[in-house]
């Protein structure tokens, strides 16, 4: 039986890489990753190669059933050079330490975007809707826009076997969030990228695009989009004392620059100290504090200092491979 394999990869655009994909038809495929062949594409059309030597390779690294097509699979790929070494745009291959003791829950925020008016879904042409307040977790046509899209996305993610843990309407008009939980930096990245891919494709059907920019409405009084990174390892999960949490949080202080570097483009526009963010220049942490760089969830002290941390700084356009890898590096530098 002919099967459709959608090979998905990240292009070489800077500062934000975008999803690309193309379809390969194969005779049979039963879902075994190692059965998938390496493929190639024209890197000169994706800022990944010069025209005179344009071939790049696609190496399958993660595969799920494609819920939207008959007899089909979605294949996340790493981009390789023809000599088999990782391409410079391949963030996944730079993950040095993919430790499955690290668990990640990413909260991916984004805007559904009305291309006709170049504004979020729900914005009137040429003006503004009422101010923020009623939109977060709202119900009803006056405040919630695009629910048919996000419901379709949720079903698609679940059918593909992604570990979605929840969805909600966000603070700005037309802004939504999904949360995905997974273990290890590579798996966390694979799941988020495939979920983003499904959302983009569902948006096409509805004539709505997905705006991943962290501050698409600029300096106006509208929230930006984050991708909060909730993380834990055995040290944090078993915890037992405030001192352990303080020590892990303090390890982030001297490496603010290194973290911000991989926390997404234009983050200075979002991390202003307003709209539930901390200033990009500061580092802070605190229990239940949504104005801090890192929030210690309220249940952590309640449960005897056991649980996880939330780094609130990564933005909606960040590459989850790089975010997770950097967090693992910093937390592993702590000796407890
Ligand atoms: P909020 O909006 O209040 O910041 P959410 O409920 O949207 O929180 O997201 C919380 C995230 O924390 C979820 O994605 C969940 O998977 C994640 N999470 C919960 N426990 C852990 C843990 N022990 N390690 C890592 N992530 C966790
Ligand atoms: Mn959330
Ligand atoms: Mn949120
Ligand atoms: Mn959060």
Question: What does it look like?
Answer:
The chain has 336 residues and is an alpha+beta fold. It has two domains: 2-88, Ubiquitin-like (UB roll) (Roll); 103-332, Glutamine synthetase/guanido kinase, catalytic domain (Creatine Kinase, Chain A, domain 2, 2-Layer Sandwich). It is built from eight helices and 14 strands. The strands form two sheets. Strands 6, 7, 8, 9, 10, 11, 12, 13 and 14 form a nine-stranded mixed sheet that branches. A five-stranded mixed sheet has the order 2-1-5-4-3, covered by helices on one side. β8 (164-169) and β9 (175-183) form a beta hairpin. It is globular, with a radius of gyration of 20 Å. The model has no long low-confidence stretch (mean pLDDT 97). Adenosine-5'-diphosphate binds at residues 103-105, 107, 165-166, 179, 181, 228, 230-232, 237, 307-308, 310.
List keywords for this structure.
alpha+beta; binds adenosine-5'-diphosphate; nine-stranded mixed sheet; Ubiquitin-like (UB roll); 336 residues; 26% strand; Creatine Kinase, Chain A, domain 2; 14 strands; single chain; 8 helices
């Amino acid at each position: 039986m002919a099967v459709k394999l959608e090979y998905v990869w990240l292009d070489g655009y800077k500062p934000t890489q975008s999803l690309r994909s193309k379809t390969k038809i194969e005779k049979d495929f039963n879902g075994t990753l190692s059965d998938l062949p390496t493929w190639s594409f024209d890197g000169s059309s994706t800022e990944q190669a010069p025209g005179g030597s344009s071939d790049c390779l696609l190496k399958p690294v993660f595969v799920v059933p494609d819920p939207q097509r008959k007899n089909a699979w979605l294949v996340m790929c790493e981009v390789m050079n023809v000599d088999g070494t990782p391409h410079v745009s391949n963030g996944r291959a730079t993950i040095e330490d993919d430790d499955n003791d690290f668990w990640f829950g990413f909260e991916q925020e984004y805007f559904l975007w009305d291309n006709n008016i170049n504004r979020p879904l729900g914005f009137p042409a040429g003006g503004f809707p009422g101010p923020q307040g009623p939109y977060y977790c709202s119900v009803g046509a006056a405040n919630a826009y695009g629910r048919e899209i996000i419901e379709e996305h949720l079903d698609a993610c679940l059918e593909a076997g992604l570990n979605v843990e929840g969805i909600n309407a966000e603070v700005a008009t037309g802004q939504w969030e999904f949360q995905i939980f997974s273990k290890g930096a590579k798996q966390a990245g694979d799941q988020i990228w495939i979920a983003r891919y499904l959302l983009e494709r569902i948006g096409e059907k509805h004539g709505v695009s997905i705006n991943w920019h962290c501050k698409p409405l600029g300096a106006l009084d509208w929230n930006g989009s984050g991708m909060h990174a909730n993380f834990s390892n055995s040290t944090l999960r078993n915890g037992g004392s405030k001192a352990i949490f303080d020590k892990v949080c303090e390890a982030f202080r001297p490496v603010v620059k290194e973290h911000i570097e991989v926390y997404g483009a234009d983050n200075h526009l979002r991390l202003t100290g307003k709209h539930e963010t901390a200033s990009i220049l500061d580092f802070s942490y605190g229990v239940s504090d949504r104005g801090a760089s890192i929030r210690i969830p309220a249940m952590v002290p309640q449960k005897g200092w056991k649980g996880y941390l939330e780094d609130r700084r990564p933005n909606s356009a960040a590459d989850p491979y790089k975010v997770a890898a950097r967090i693992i590096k910093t937390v592993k530098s702590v000796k407890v």
